[in-house]
Amino acid sequence: MNALTKCICNSDRFTEREEQYYEVTPEGETVIAKNGSRIKLAECLDCGVIRQTTLPFVKTEYKKYYQEYQPVNEQYKAKDYDHDLRIAKLRANDYGIYGGCELLLLDVGSGSGAFVDECRSRGAAAYGCEISKYAYAPAGNFIYQGMLEDIAFPTDHFDIVTCHDVLEHCLDPVSFVREMFRITKQGGKCIIDFPNFHVEAGKHHWKIEHIWYFNVDQLKELLAKIGFIISGIKNPIESKILFTCAKPEEDRKTILLPPGIGDSYWSLIKLPALIERENIGIPEIAVACNKEKKYNGHKRAFPFIEMFPFVHSSGFSLSTDGESNKKIWKEAYAQEGRTIFRDVLNCDYFVSYNGHLRIGKSMNEIDPDLKCSWNPKMFVSLEQLNFQKMCQEQFGKYIVFYFIFGGTYSYWTQQFPIKNIIGYIRKVLNRTGLKAVFTGAIWDGDDNPLNEIKKNFPDSIDLVGKTTVQQLFGLLKGSELVVGYPSGLTILSASMGIKTLTIWNDYYNRDFAWNCVQPEVWNKTYFTENTNGINVNSLTTKSIGIIEGIAKPSKLPLPIGKKAISIKKNEKIVKSVELKRSPCLTIACVLKSGGDYDEKYVQIMKRMIEKTVTIPYKFCVLTDVNIKDIESIRLEKNFPGWWSKLELFSLYGPVLYIDLDTVILHNIDKLVNSVSRMDNGQFWMLPPFNSSRREKGMWASGIMAWYGDFRYLIDKFDRKNYEGWDQVYISKTLEKRGVKIESIGRFSRIASYKRHCSSTSNKPNEFDIVCFHGRERPHTCKHQWVKEIWA
To answer: Which listed residue, of 283, 666, 746, 787, carries a Cα 20 to 30 Å from 163's Cα?
Structure first.
């Protein structure tokens, strides 16, 4: 298959011809090809560009061709390193690269590396990029092996990009020049040396390995089309053309991201789709600084963001001080609010997914029209590769540990204290014989408990605050295992397929543990444990199992998507368990025998929720009857009628309660998400549909939500003192306890059937939930829209 079926102008109209071609002997002599063979060419009928069609180039064959290219062979004698160095000196002089310069330079197609070496000898931070390993090239640490397009250098990175006798070899010269343009700094320059094919002195350049035979005007047009400003064209020798180009300043869109490596990563995996949808091009990335810290930790995000070639890491941080900005920050970072904001802090966009992730949503659920790029191209620097090699050589086999104890991590140590961490590290090191490496950012070095832990392991390697971002990634990639608390470090380790064990806590929604990285690594290279339930032995066993590739799946349940957890208990009612926080939101109902409702109401409620809730939850019923295939909790108090509802408060939460005589019409994810992130001690009820009751400050209990210990609503209840309704007792008791009741109606469109829907036969699409109260029941309702749901 010939990949070169079209011209650079995208035309497929061409005329074929043949031309005599040349080859270079091992002795360096250019001669007419043997046997009088001729090279096959195609000349574009639209733009006149000539390309060869002799070689059936596709990318894999192209790479193989250059793996066997003449200079990679030991017998090649046409040139040597000294020859290349002499040419390099002339070029460096011509380009104005003199001693003491501080330029960042890339030589694309660097061959033996002579030009890179010469520029470095003059003070430049010079690097090369080469698809082949030249046989006569000296051992060097400054050459990236591979095709330019595959290396993913940062945007606006190099002061100078040079390209000597390479463009004519490219499969796709348009993409190649565009990539050189992208990686050149704005205001920087690109120098391209190209054969002068169309003069007598350049005829010997018509060789089998050359694909494109541009003339001066055609190459000039290509460079200008990409965006370069051509500042000079000359012939250093008659058979060569030298273009000097400048990259102008570009007018780009600006995107603001949250600080931190993990925070910005979640935004970055959505950005390629957003960039395409909004036709943004390459954006400038700034970082939100919600508050100044001792070490300006937000700035650590910039060298990480720089690794993504589809953006430019601007280095600018913007403060979110001020009331309006703080509200935006809270919505983006801590709530299920907007994910993409417009015109924030003079940026065109502000993109953050933290708020949704922390309540248990997956990245695929959030902005589903923007496809996730979990593993976008990332720049892997020589610094990263060399540091990985150094770590493996100097440390041997090692485990990376990341533990800090300030801020929210205090919740972790309440359940798995520091002495347990020390015991775990000691045990896993003794069992495996591996070296301990402690890492973290510079501010983590101020963590006193962490320093105490390190003192227990005097033979460990302390790299806390001592690595760049690139070195950090090299360290992680060279490890046998990465263990630590959730952070940018552990999240990126997991996302890159490095063996990782992250220790979570119920401070976060349990699904956050999984949704922070792509499903492809779950329980394969990425495992989780929760501080609630682990011990030194279990954590040690899990760590060794991950290293050996035999780890059992994590106990922390995987996200359940659109299906609820339905636990079959051999049709027996499950007894109430000891009070503790649920690992996820519970949606509950109550069925007391002897009333107007039966098992069908519970089954229909379960079915309605399954259709209208797409995020993780657990469904259960408090009841005194056996209900097949639904998790049940026994009613034990024998309270009459609606008073049985009080036994709900044996559940710690977060809990969403819904009366059985309720019809759910549309998606209620917003309501469920809001309940799942309730603060401890919060209680929400339904405002009465009767206006006079609302005016008196009364509440209704048809839909309620809470999080915390409200068992006193059961313990303090005396049936003799309450002849009225349960909602009066609940609300008055809460108020006496100083609990502020809030309206649950803020999070969903809730209506009364009797007051809002009874007179219409059409489905009331303006509401999500319809409550039946009074005499009418869903199973007796004549309206078709109710019957369809109740069928």
So the answer is: 283
Give 725-729's long-range contacts (Cβ < 8 A, gap of 24+).
725/642, 725/701, 726/642, 726/643, 726/645, 726/646, 726/701, 727/685, 727/698, 727/699, 727/700, 727/701, 728/698, 729/646
Average pLDDT over residues 681-705: 86
How far apart are the C-alpha atoms of 621 and 626, rounded to whole Å?
10
DSSP 8-class letter at 253 = -
305 shares a domain with 205: no
Adjacent-strand bridge partners of 189: 160, 246
Do 100 and 44 lie in one domain? The reply is no
Residues 353 and 387 in one domain: no
Which of 195, 227, 246 is the endpoint of a domain?
246
CATH code for the domain in which residue 536 is found: 3.40.50.2000
Note whether 389 and 492 are same-domain residues.
yes
Q: Which of 6, 7, 5, 35 is nearest to 20 (CA)?
A: 35
Q: Would you say residue 1 lies in a domain?
A: no
Q: Report the 10 Å Cβ neighbour count for 52.
A: 22
Number of domains in the chain: 5
Q: Does the model's pTM come out above 0.85? A: no
| Torsion sign across C-alpha atoms 682, 688, 689, 695 | negative
Decide if 760 is inside a domain: no
Does one domain contain both 65 and 163?
no
User: Do 352 and 460 fall within a single domain?
Assistant: no
Phi/psi for 308 (5° steps) reads -100, 115
Cα 111–Cα 117–Cα 121 angle in degrees, nearest 5: 165
Of the residues 53, 70, 87, the one at which a domain ends: 70
Q: Which positions ≥6 away from 419 have C-beta within 8 Å?
A: none
Average pLDDT of the segment spanning 200-219: 89
* Residue 775 per-residue DSSP state: S
What pairs with residue 108 in β-bridges?
129, 163
Three-state SS at 28: coil
Cα→Cα distances 214→20, 169, 240, 721, Å = 17, 12, 12, 97
Instruction: List the one residue out of 305, 327, 331, 332 whose CA is nearest residue 316.
Output: 305
Regarding whether 269 and 241 lie in a shared domain, the answer is no
Distances (CA, A) of 331 to 41, 669, 685: 61, 17, 24
Q: How far apart are CA 670 and CA 336, in angstroms?
A: 8
402: which strand partners? 484
Stronger pLDDT, 29 or 220, i.e. the higher one: 220
Q: Provide the CATH number for the domain around residue 654.
A: 3.90.550.10
Instruction: Tell me the residue range of the domain where 636 lies.
Output: 586-744
Same domain, 96 and 183: yes
pLDDT digits (tens, 9 = 90+) for 741-769: 999 988 889 999 888 888 777 888 888 99
